Structure formats: C-alpha cells, structure tokens
What does this fold into?
Amino acid sequence: MNSSSVLQGRTALVTGATSGIGKAVAQNLARHGVQVVVHGRDHSRGEALVKEIAEEGGVARFVAADLADAADTLRLASEAGAVDILVNSAGLYEFVPTAVTDAASFDRQVAVNTRAPFLLVGALAPGMVERGHGSIVIVGSSAARMPAPVGAAYGASKAGAEILTRYWATEFGGSGVRVNAVSPGPVHTEGTQAMLGEHTAMLDKTNTRGRAGDPGEIAEIVAFLVGPASSYVNGAVLFADGGELSALPA
Ligand SMILES: NC(=O)c1ccc[n+]([C@@H]2O[C@H](COP(=O)([O-])OP(=O)(O)OC[C@H]3O[C@@H](n4cnc5c(N)ncnc54)[C@H](OP(=O)(O)O)[C@@H]3O)[C@@H](O)[C@H]2O)c1
It folds into this structure.
C-alpha cells in the first residue's frame, strides 16, 4: 500500500469490482489507501477480493446488489454510505445483431450500463456536493462511438452513459464534484474471455498497438481521474483504446 498517496483516507464505491476492469480499479485504489466498497453480485469473488486487499494492507468491504434492479441499486447506494469517489464499472455486453436482440436484452443492458450509474449518481452526488468535493468516473466504451455490425444496444447504452457524464459534469461541477469517463477499447477480462473463448486473441488486432488493453491500464486512468492531478478535468471522455486503426487499406 502507498501510504503517501494523495488519495489516502478517501472512500470509494466501485461497481462491478468482482471482475475485470472494476476489480483492477478497486485493487489500485486500495493500494493508494482508499477504503473501497467492492460491489458485484458474486459473493465468493467479492469476499475473495476483500481478503486479497486486506492481505496487501488495504481496507475494503463487499456489498452485493443486482444493478438490473432499480430498488437494489438504491440499496447499494445507501449501504455504501458517504463516499468521496464513485466508479461505475459494472456492465454487460451482449454482442448480437439487432434482429435477435429482444426487449429483455435491450432493457438489461440499458438498466445496468446506463440506468444504474444514473441512480447511483442521483443518490450519491448530493452528499458529495454537500461535503464540497467528490469525483465520479463512468467506464464507457469505444462501442459508443465506433459502430460494429453487432452490439447496437450495448453501444447505445454506453453512448447514454457517456453523454450523462457530460451532463453531470455541468450539473455538479460548480459544487466541487468532477465527473469524467474513461472509454476503453477492447480489454482482456474475464468477461471478454467468457464471450470469445479461444477467439479472444482477435481483440489484439483491433487497434494500432496490436494488442488489447489490460485492466490495470484502465485502473491507472481511473486513479488519475479521481485524484487531484486531474483537478482541471471535468466532463471529459478519455479514450483508452490503443489508437483507432484507419478504415482505409494500408
Ligand atoms: N472488457 C472490455 O473489452 C471492455 C471494453 C470497453 C468497455 N468495457 C466496460 O468496462 C466495464 C467492465 O468490463 P469487464 O470486461 O471488466 O467486465 P466483466 O469481466 O464481465 O465484469 C463485469 C462486472 O460487472 C458486474 N455486473 C454485471 N452485471 C451486473 C448486474 N446485473 N448487477 C451487478 N453487477 C453486474 C459483474 O459482477 P458479478 O459477476 O459479480 O455479477 C462484474 O463485476 C463494463 O462496463 C464494460 O462495458 C469493457
């Protein structure tokens, strides 16, 4: 643990911290001395992460909630209590064509990817405003700006989250609360592994770096966005996608 970190003593709620990007974010913030409320649905992975953080000298507790359920999302906010930092990383991506995306799939993606951050910000930002400081990060997606032949509902849900980021920066910026997004391109996580299986290496061909991202690389950006080094950054959507490949043949 880095006891001289400028984030030392802050408190954070990190959603989707039982896996992938959210897990790396929670681990990194804990190493900076942030007391982290680790969220997910999977109790065993949540408790394992709390234990892992404690073994490294950090402080964390686990709160389970289903973000597809509005009441459960508000319960999470209430159980998290007064936090200085909110990172919305929980998300789901169902990459199928529009004609086979049923209403339940569309609603699920919008509920978890767009509505849950909306409800959490509505519940937690007023306390930050009252205390005169706070920092909120949304994990968006390059899918919000780079259309693909599949995943239109996911792209729309993330585009919604990214525009909400800019609204909230305007709504809360004058009260000392900054709201920014990191918008990753493909990242190797448990989620992408489960989706692609043996084809996961295809993610490495999506950008100019010739490899997909690592969750730790996104976690570093989140630490920057919630810390004082980014004090003049508000309403930004920071692209972390390895650089877009040109659509034109080389
Ligand atoms: N990986 C990528 O290539 C990539 C690229 C761009 C953006 N993103 C975004 O980055 C975020 C994390 O992605 P990832 O790849 O790290 O995901 P992941 O490995 O699939 O993990 C998803 C996380 O979200 C939680 N979650 C999913 N549905 C939930 C629900 N209904 N209620 C509560 N929690 C729920 C999961 O919790 P449980 O498993 O405990 O339920 C888990 O912690 C997502 O918002 C995703 O859209 C990912």
